[in-house]
Amino acid sequence: MRRTLRALLMLCAWLKPARALQRIQRAALRRKSALPAAQDEQALRETRWSATSVLRFSRSPFAAWLDAALTTASGADRERLEARRDPPDGFSLLLARKGDAWERQVSKELFRDKSVVDLSGGTLRATGTAETLEALHTNADIIYQAPLSTDRFVGAPDFLVREGSQWSIFDAKLSRSATPAHVAQLCCYAELLEELDVDVSPFATLVLGGGAPLEHTRRIHLPTYAAHWRRLRGRFLSFADRFDDCPEPWVVQNAPLPRGDAPKDAHGRWASLASQLLVERDDLFTACAGLTSRQARALKREGVATGQQLAELKPSRRIPGVRGDALRRLRAQALLQRSNDNGVAWWPLSPKGLRADDVRRILLNEHKPRRVCPLPEEHPLDCYFDLEGDPLLGGPRGREYLWGIAHRENGTLAFDAAWAHDAIAEREACRCFVESIEQRFEASEGRAHAYHYGAYERSALRRVAAGDAELERKLESLGARGAFVDLYSVVKRTLLVGEPRYSLKNVEKLYRGKRNNSEVNDAVGSVVGYELWLADKNPALLDELVAYNRDDCESTAELVDWIREAFPIARSEEEVEEALPQSEEDKEKDLLEEDILRSQLPVVASSWVDYHRREQRPVWRQRRDWLDAPAWDLSEDERCLGGCSKPTLVQEPVKRGTRSVFELSFSTPQITKLQGGDAVALRDDKAFTSSRASIVDVDLVRGKVQVLCNEVPNTCSIIPDDYVNPAPLPAAISRNLRGLLESSSTSVLRSFVSRERPTFVDVKTEGDLLKPFDGSAVEAIRSLQKGSVLAVQGPPGTGKTRLAAEALAALMRDGKRVAVAAPGHATIAHCLSKALDKIDCDVMCVKVGSRRRASSDDPETALAQRSNVITKPRWDAKLAKELSDTDLPVLLGATAWALARDDAVGAFDYLFVDEAGQVPAANLAAMASCASRIVLLGDQAQLPAPCRGAHDEGGASSCLEHYVGGEELSEDRGVFLGVTYRLHPLLCGAISELMYNGKLKAHPLAEQRVLSEGTGLLRACAGLAIVDVADDGSYRSSTSNQKEAAVVASVVAELLQRHLEDGSSSRPLSTDDILVVCPYNAHVRAVEAALVQRGIRRVRVGTVDRFQGREAPVVVASLCAPPSQQDDDEDSVASGGRGVAFVLDVRRLNVALSRAQCLAVLVAAPDLADGAASSLDRMRELAVLSRLRELAVDTVVADESVAGEP
Length: 1206
Fold this sequence. Notes:
Strand order of the largest sheet: 25-24-26-23-27-28-22-29
CATH architecture of the largest domain: 3-Layer(aba) Sandwich
Helix content: 40-55%
Number of strands: 40
Radius of gyration: 32 Å
Shape: globular
């Protein structure tokens, strides 16, 4: 019937398109004017759910329930709910007003010269949907606000735009960047249209703010994110069914309980009610500031579910999973928050944290101990600053529109403010501010400081200064020399305050009581006030904003005074670093960047000039934070070991000039990622100085660590020493890019930078590069023209290494000189070994450099044992001369550090870059001058190039990503190896869909490789299987999960009972046939221990990075992570911000699963895919995991009998 109706509508539209459009427009206008509001509300109640409902549920089921209850309630019930709801806040109203205005602007531009059907003002019901379907079958170009309705969901996309035979969804968003909420809405609209049999384009468009209408758009590939939406929608419908079954949903007690660890804005206009309910039930998160989700789970597991129970814990009580000093702090925090009857309670912390006796003294309200002041000595040139920013203005980062600074003048606190109503004024305000701080700092010989509260100000300064090299360097220099003091960091390290949060608004109650009652009393109010001023230019509003900013600056100054009074013991003076003058090298870099920007080269090349310095900045910043942090704080950081003491000499120096081995003790449980061989620094916990050392061994069970060093402080903390000297790479980049600017001749670097298509000797190519070479990539490489770059993308198991070996062997027969580079020495050694196996002529093979730690089964060790390989510790002049003097073909393996040297320029005919998806483009710019041709081999869908710094767009790309110009390699620019010999078709199908847009196919031979049928937990013979391990927080740190480790051991034991069948042959699975992949080294150790407990040895267990390039019939991947609702949850950002997002990185998942030849087993928490998506990258990660669950051939649940008792 539906198809018949559609056919009639299409015929009508074809015969009388103009008349049909007019009829629909008239009907829409009649509906707008005639439909009563009550009928509209009733229509909404009939269908009820929308994408907004689902998104609200994802953040707060409590708020979603009450929103739905308010919609369905009537009379007194509705009035009671309305009375408990917060009034609309000014910022939300402002966003709604500006959003409507933005949509009107976009409409005006989008409708230009188009035929439009306007269905706005209609109802989300069946009749409205019928009008939408009728409009879709006219010749209209655009349908505006088309109502859509199905059995459970409704929606109205802003615009449906005709694109050929399909309809594409366009949505206008005031935001300057696309968010998961925007994409979820698009997925909902697409699903509604598909259910109505509408041909929808897989691409939707977000029209973003921050410029003219249609100036900033974001094209969204909906299938990439659809699985996440489907999973979220499924969870919501279960929730909706419970709501429908509730006889009185408007009774607040029937709603789901609000979560105490939810973000403060998650509950919307029910935030006050949620806070009230959390206080009434004495929720742990409300009663104890700073509590993490992992700590809360551990406490609840031991029966501690309220703030009262936490405060009343006995000093001797131990909570498994929470360290003793951390538990003392939590108990003290809970006590202080319950002791605020006579003002805000507080307690000073010692550098070692909270002493055992401190909790008793807090309980008895004894006098506070005298502590050393954590602030520098007061100076007349000290200043206190605060910035006000509007995220709705300017470019993607918004605008800092008010710059306030307070300072002492004639004994009183003076205040100055500068307005920045446009981008030019903002940059000038930043320059004046930085120069003012610099003058104060220099005039005081480094004794004056600029105080602020929170990380926002420093981050805003860096954002505004970005792009101005001189301003960036001044900021970095002032930061490195300690000119800025973040009082939030000081308060968190040295104080416990009896408040539920440590915001300035809360902390200032210590010295102010209640905050000033002004019209503008928080940052959101300031944004609203400034937007109102932009609308009507009322000068009184600016005065109010200045008063608010001044109040914050003065409060910051008062906090400094209070801290100095509360901590009466003055601290010892520190040496102040002298400012380094701008070097000639820095001046040359500035000139080079400017010249590149004025040239025809791509802008991204300018970001490579200072790439390595930007990479180093976070390292040094983190190091400074670690050097200043108290030992108890470092104990909570899994990258460090805090509070080590009782050093004992284990081994004296073997000979003069060598170092000794000392053993130190630390309190347990303390989890760390540090392991034997790591370079570290020993931070003296009393003097706060540091010395270099290296780890010999770490025993987490006994709480012992052995270090190799000259001497050890009596009490110290161990922090990583991650610094890698980038020389000679920065100088080589400048040399090579300057050469490009000064010469117009063809060069391989120019081809790379400009992404030029490869050319070949005596061969012209159009379209498929391999067609003239009969599909032979080796012949294409041999024929590569000088000055050309050829990219080869090799997905898992497609023979990329074999191709490289065959090409290298052919080039050796041609007498060429070839350098092989890669991100690491092991990869280089593996590639050289495979090539030597195929080379059948005399060559000079050299391996330059090596890793500090190389095991006996490492490719480097095996390569060094070959008789025809010369190993050199480093590149030097002697090696350069040997290479130039030989008449033999040359095959040399080295990293960029060797190939970027001046005496390597022009030394080779070819440069092969293996795993080019992990080599930064800046590094290739440094070493490109060593060869006349470049072959990039890798897969940008696997492990990415490492990146720590903040770079301009494209500046952090790998060399393969830069040259390809996106995620897909076009056939006219390189070679895509599209047949995998490794992956079984069932496994290949999943990986191909998610990572390669379906282009990767399995070879028929791969289908013959399967496992015998299982009889235990797992029965799958090939493909992807998922084992769900419910996470209750037991036995878990941020980087290891012993429950999952026990399940992995059970799965491995079961697999070892099965056979591997390959065609007509069959044999038992052995330990060599199984790889176990983990995200963290700590979890690797947990899995190894669980395997040993089951009597299983010699199974290869390691991280993704270790196994890239390896394969086995079976891979067991353990994700070791629970879902995280917040990105700032300490559990989710453990180990240096590498939390759930690190575990779910799609490229790491691709590497982990694609090591398997026939069966990949994913061991994970069942609700891991239900985490909150804070960005599109995170949403894609969750979508990939959701889609993997849909594609799995077997999903089983590991019960307690399988998990065992760790």
